Amino acid sequence: MTFFYHGGQDKYQVEQTLAPDEQMWLDLGKLIRDQVPGKDGKTIPPEVTSGVYQIEDLTHVVLGPLYEAKLIVDKTNGHAFYGCYECCGDDGAVMGTIPINTVVNGVQGQTVWSVSQCHGCPPVNITSAMTSWWTNDTSIATASNAQVYGVAVGSTDNLAEGLISTSGFRTCGQMEGKPSAGTNVTPTIAQNMELWYFNGNSAPGPAAPNFTLGATSITLTAEGVAQGTFAWTVTKGPQNANATFSNGATKVTNTNVNTVQLTSTAQSFATADAVLISLEYTPPGGTTLPAVDYPVEIDAPYKLVGTGTTNAGAETTCQTVPAPVGTAGYQSLVGYDILSFFGVEVSNVVVAENFSNIQVVYQGNNWPGYLAGTAPTTTGAFVDNICVINATIPTSLPPQQPLSGVQVDQAFQTWHVGSVPGSAPGLTVQTDTLRRYQDHGLHAGITSPIW
Question: Tens digit of pLDDT for each residue in 270-305?
């Protein structure tokens, strides 16, 4: 029950579950005097002396077993009288989504609403009152149980039918409600593989030989239709993920060609950072259908995850992993896995390092200099081979117990994934300081990810 006062500007609501034959009795005077809170915690101000009310059956959408009968008693002047109710019927039935848009093999929910004929009542959801659902062209779309299913590209109508209530003096009637709405079925957009970004380097290619996780250029297809005009648009992602079509533009229109090439120009910087592909399709001799949007995430190498460091004595050569075991020096292997922004282990890519800000700690040492390396990884795992043998000032040693604290030098190290050997670097995934000690090497001050 809702009691309206202050000219209908304020209301007081009471909600009660009634068993069969149970009644709701309300003493509004007592509710006002005792300042009893209603359903929403509000009370009726003491100065209120008049108002209007309505009752609503919350369980039954159309007609239910609720009956209104009241006895109004004026305790001040001694009057008692009955009132006559007005049934609040539905002012027709309309679809909630007009038109409703879906894609081929897609599904979209529909609702039905009505506005009560009582003044000030909000729209009422009467979807459950609809007992039949259908479309005018089942070759384009079908409907059942408030769901519209896309079958083929085109336009039709979706309809429903059911009994709704009608208003009347001291009576509530029924009538047939038959809402309808337009229905558009658009092509489904599909991509042939995941889209990746390697700082402008191509994959598969020199930056990522035999790359199988996706590509830096992919094909989008408007499925379900082959003829007509296809107008494609790409919109940059909210955090700057970006891509262009094969012509380098963000818009392209093709006739009777339902595919388009998409090339990444920047990676996704957040989980919701996807480029938005919009397609407007016009059938031959027909009207342009509503645009269908399709998000494309752009994955990229993101960070290195350490897998541990091993230290062993070495001799003869540092070029093999592991090196021949001996006492001429040491080989420290610092292991990593390469992970993408979306958590994929990045395999069949080239890993590259470079050095800067090299600092000598042990003055007068004759240790070999730093040589940046580049190598492919087929599994997404790799090791940084820190190896020194046959050095004499100071003498390179196999790992001691405990490890030596005599530091020889250090260098700032930057790691890139998806690099082209001898050319363009890939994406930076980690920086650290490589420190070489007399009997071991290590990475310190690791920062990963970088972007």
Answer: 989 999 999 999 999 999 999 999 999 999 999 999
In order of 15, 24, 30, 31, 56, the CA distances from 36 in angstroms are: 13, 16, 8, 5, 21
Q: What does DSSP say about strands 427-437 and 79-82: parallel, antiparallel, or unpaired?
A: unpaired
Write out pLDDT tens, residues 148-169. 999 999 999 999 999 988 776 6
d(CA 419, CA 199): 8
Q: Which of 88, 114, 104 is nearest to 142 (CA)?
A: 104
* Helix, strand, or coil (residue 67): coil
374 located within any domain: yes
391 plus 348 within the same structural domain: yes
**Tokens 């790409």 map to which residue?**
234
Amino acid at position 306, single letter: G
User: What number of CA atoms fall less than 13 Å from residue 144's CA on the CB side?
Assistant: 2
Cα 343 to Cα 326: distance, rounded to the nearest angstrom: 39
Q: Are strands 130-135 and 141-144 parallel, antiparallel or unpaired?
A: unpaired
Domain containing residue 291: 191-298
Distance, in Å, from the CA atom of 363 to the CA atom of 88, rounded to the nearest integer, reads 96
Q: Which helix (H) or strand (E) holds 291?
A: none
Q: Which two tokens stand for residue 53?
A: 């009310």
- Tell me, yes or no, whether 167 and 152 share the same domain: yes
Q: Which two tokens stand for residue 194?
A: 């995941």
Among the candidates 128, 155, 186, a domain finishes at 186
Q: Which pTM value belongs to this model?
A: 0.77
Residues 318 and 440 in one domain: yes
Q: Is 121 in the same domain as 214?
A: no
| Residue bearing tokens 């005792």 | 34
Whether 292 and 306 share a structural domain: no
In whole angstroms, give the CA distance from residue 268 to residue 274.
6
